Amino acid sequence: MRVLLAPDKFKGSLTAADVADRLADGLAEAGIDSLRMPMADGGDGSVDAAVAAGFTPHPVTVAGASGTPRYARIAVGDGSAVVEVANTCGLATLPNGRKLPLDASSLGVGQAISQALRHRPRRLVLALGGSACTDGGMGMLAALGVTFADASGQRLRACGRSLARVHTVDSSRAVRLSEVDIVVASDVTNPLLGPDGAAVVYGPQKGATESDVRFLDDGLRKLVRAFVRSGYPDAATVAAASGAGSAGGIGFAALLLGGTIVSGAEFFLELLEFDRHLPDIDLVITGEGSIDEQTAHGKLPAVLAARAHPTPVVAVAGRNTLPRDHWHRAGFTAVYSLSDYTDSNTADDPDLTSRLLTRIGREIGRIPAISG
A biological process (GO) annotation for this entry (predicted)? Predict the structure, then answer.
């Protein structure tokens, strides 16, 4: 009996590798062998997933979301470089977890891209999940040599607070990326502007008040006009594209650079050669911090389950609100939830999460159909 462990992270608690390790411990106690394949969907853990696939990690020094210097990692291998928003300028980089909806910047991911380009990749993979900013990608572009100025010609700091003042965009000294294939790994399909846009939908998660949201959405609209005014006639069309609103508008900036948005879940399943391992596998165990009605709409566990079919897939989550009669629709044979084993909040308790995952792994391993 061979089990493939392919979970995503349990956000705020354990990395995908930690989750796989703890489940493997439980399976081993039940006498079941397993293969570990930590997964990612374009959010935090994407660089780690690439490293697990054989890429080489490289340290980089960048500005976190608040501008404070920090160490991060990129992954390089097979002509590709993977750069992650979450570990460069994501929410986790904010000091003391204090959200800065107007002042957080995507500068750090642009700095990481600049350092990744030193490895001369043919393909640049941008993993956009976990962002802290709503700056339309101003920070990322600024790190690549693009300058933003107000109507008087004064150069602006790249952050959400500056959006409303942007009048001109100068890319004459920007890094040229015409020979690099830019792949944007994200499962967000929102446009940049409006009621379904970056500010309205995701701004509150980043600490934006109602007035902040209005300010940011209006600012993003003015940013698009500034691009059109400055020689980007297709900027308005790009802003309306699916995924342009990902990562506070970094998706918009990446599309302007010639990037292509792909499903983060599908991309990492391909990168890790998930399908290649299936012929030797009897059961797949996947999961993430929360499984709910949205899981079946492009989230990693459901995308993975569809790829694994007809191999049975068991999902493990910190919290599960998906009704039992919907499990099969999402592709799951069974769903295990840590919240069924404790009244405590496991998201804030990595030790408890670890113990319960090991217990669940042991229970799965002792199911007669699995243990034989």
Answer: organic acid phosphorylation
- The CATH class that applies to domain 3-38+282-365 reads alpha beta
Close Cβ partners of 55 (under 8 Å, ≥ 6 residues apart): 75, 76, 77, 78, 80, 82
The tokens describing 120, both together, are: 């001369």
pLDDT at 372: 56
Residue among 265, 266, 267, 241 at smallest CA distance from 254: 241
Cα 3 to Cα 363: distance, rounded to the nearest angstrom = 14
Q: List for the chain the helix, strand, coil content (%; round to 5).
A: 45, 20, 35
DSSP 230: T
Give the dihedral of Cα atoms 87, 89, 92, 96; nearest 10 deg.
140
Which residues lie below 8 Å from residue 11, measured CB to CB, with a gap of 6+? 43, 44, 288, 289, 347
Span 46-264: which CATH code? 3.90.1510.10
Query: In this predicted structure, what is the pLDDT of residue 371?
Result: 57
**Total length of the chain:** 372
The band of 349, judged by pLDDT with boundaries at 50, 70 and 90, is confident
Query: What is the structure's pLDDT at 370?
Result: 65
Dihedrals phi, psi of 114, to nearest 5 degrees: -55, -40
Helix (H, G, I), strand (E, B) or coil at 132: coil
